[in-house]
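Bench log, entry 3. Co-assembly request; chain sequences pasted below exactly as received.
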Amino acid sequence: GAGVSQSPSNKVTEKGKDVELRCDPISGHTALYWYRQSLGQGLEFLIYFQGNSAPDKSGLPSDRFSAERTGGSVSTLTIQRTQQEDSAVYLCASSLWSSGRNEQFFGPGTRLTVL
Amino acid sequence: QQQVKQSPQSLIVQKGGISIINCAYENTAFDYFPWYQQFPGKGPALLIAIRPDVSEKKEGRFTISFNKSAKQFSLHIMDSQPGDSATYFCAARGASGSARQLTFGSGTQLTVLP
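Structure output for the full assembly:
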């Protein structure tokens, strides 16, 4: 079956512009995560959705970052007034909540470059 | 505060050798410790994982050793192959009822020379 997909694969934008990044999780997965991976760094948690529960936004670095998940499936991460320090690879992952291992399956990421 | 510390940052091993990557954690509430493998341009993929009630888990050439008292765990890759060249991340996740996101180490770039 299809894995986690993300679009676009690459995004170049100018400082101050808004960007939207999309994630399509694996069908049937109830949990969805966004992470950020800066060059040479580990993955930094941003936000987590589980079913219809309120999202865990504890990792969002500023109020310029927001995310939504429509219909319990597709998610969009929005970054407003982008800054150069926002340049990174943004990774989405999904998992089955009921799975004891809670394995997170990652998408290929969106590479964001802010000029 | 970095909750999972990973070393080394980079590692070069000859084909057939043993690759060892170490991680240490601080949060005693962590109850699940996976290792992810990431190739350039791809998202991380789960390689092997362990829970704190066992001291070792082996899957093929990959072994996790876990030391609960020291709050350390390591990945051993036996008979390392050039195809193993990738970035490896250790991670940890909180216990049931707490946040389910993974906390990652900073990564180790492994190069296996032919």
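Strands of chain A lie at 5-7, 10-13, 19-24, 31-37, 43-50, 65-69, 75-79, 88-95, 105-106, 110-114. The mean pLDDT of chain A is 91.
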